Amino acid sequence: MTLRLAVLGPAGTFSDIAAQQYLRQQQLDWQLTYYNSIDQVAASVQAETEYALLPLENTLDGYVQNTLAILSYAELQVVGEALVPVRFSLAANAADLASIKRIYVQFKTKGQCGRILAQLPQAERLTTESNMLSFNKLQTAAHGDAAIIPQFHLAELPDTFLKLADVTDTTENYTRFIVVKKQAAALQQVQPWQQDFRALCYITPQTDRAGLLSEILQEFAQRHLNLISIMSRPTRRELGHYRFFIEIGGQAGQSPVLADALAQLAQRHHVKYLGSFSR
Questions:
Q1: Which of 102, 161, 230, 232 could serve as 124's disulfide partner, Cβ 3.0–4.6 Å?
Q2: What pLDDT does 167 receive?
Q3: pLDDT of res. 188
Q4: CA–CA separation, 69 vs 145, rounded Å?
Q5: Cβ distance 38 to 64 under 8 Å?
Q6: How many whole angstroms from its chain centre is CA 97?
Q7: Topology of domain 1-86+173-184, per CATH?
Q8: Hey, is 157 helix, strand or coil?
Q9: 57 - beta bridge partners?
């Protein structure tokens, strides 16, 4: 049976590029299945596909909040990652920027192209679920329509269009994707790695008092585990109550140390281990 990988579509998105890159690097012969939103991608791995690729983090716009929310409640395990460079162009059926009446832009792209959008105060912003949907809007663009699109699609548009080759806010812009499967990661089964690795988890405190977060972080610090990031997320049960999304960077041979830290924390808090992957 051919395994399937759910991807935010249509074909040609950065998610599609990341998925194909991951399959090449891992030498996997999986079938790509495209969906119209991140929520649909995540839902598919619960019912239709074996794996899914989700955007996790961008250099300019930070963590993808929708993905963090999905990881907090879905029974998924992270098994890999892919990193792709991200560059954007602006294309418009218009003579100049002042003539643009509306612009299509993907929901995360807005935070990566803020400078050019600030130059278009007159333009109505229409948010799309994927960059390819923004690009497709240009196929039937009325006069005054514009879109921010992946740079590699710019040459496909008519020469009569206004084209700005690079409207990304910085030259160092990357998006990191994770590959997940339908299976919660067992807390007591941290995969043994013989190379550097990353691990993800959610920790939900069962009490609220001064110094609590410091105590949680010390469990990692005293074991010389590097905390890459920590994000507070609402528990959705009560206003002012939060859980913490934590990404840990480990070195070869530190898997047992991480397992011990998580086991200690699980005695006092709710720990949801999300899995790990090599770097």
A1: 102
A2: 97
A3: 64
A4: 33
A5: yes
A6: 31
A7: D-Maltodextrin-Binding Protein; domain 2 (3.40.190)
A8: coil
A9: 63, 176
CATH number of the 88-167 domain: 3.40.190.10
Q: Which sign, positive or negative, has the C-alpha torsion 202, 207, 208, 214?
A: negative
Q: How far apart are CA 192 and CA 189, in angstroms?
A: 9
Domain spans of the chain, in order of start: 1-86+173-184, 88-167, 185-279
For domain 185-279, the CATH architecture is: 2-Layer Sandwich (3.30)
Helix/strand/coil (H, E, C) string of 2-26?
CCEEEEECCCCCHHHHHHHHHHHHH
Q: Give which of 92, 89, 112 is closest to 102, Cα–Cα.
A: 92
User: Cα(272)–Cα(238) distance, rounded to whole angstroms?
Assistant: 19
This prediction has a pTM of 0.85
| Identical fold between 1-86+173-184 and 88-167 | yes
Q: How far lies 275's CA from each of 27, 70, 262, in Å?
A: 21, 14, 12
Beta bridge partners of 108: none
Give the pair of three-digit tokens for residue 159: 């020469």
Rg from Cα positions in the chain: 21
How large is the greatest C-alpha to C-alpha distance in the chain, in angstroms? 65
Structure tokens at 23: 């399959």
Joined tokens for residue 27: 């030498």
CA–CA gap between residue 260 and residue 163 (Å, rounded):
55
Q: How big, in percent rounded to 5, are the helix, strand and coil portions of the chain?
A: 30, 35, 35
Quick: pLDDT tens for 222-251: 999 999 999 999 888 878 788 999 999 999
Using one digit for the tens of pLDDT, what is the confidence trace for 181-196? 988 777 667 888 889 9
Classify residue 106 by its DSSP letter: E
Closest CA to 244 of 270, 225, 277: 270
d(CA 164, CA 94): 12
Look-up of token digits 């480990």: 250
Question: What CA dihedral angle connects 125, 131, 137 and 143, to 10 degrees?
Answer: 50
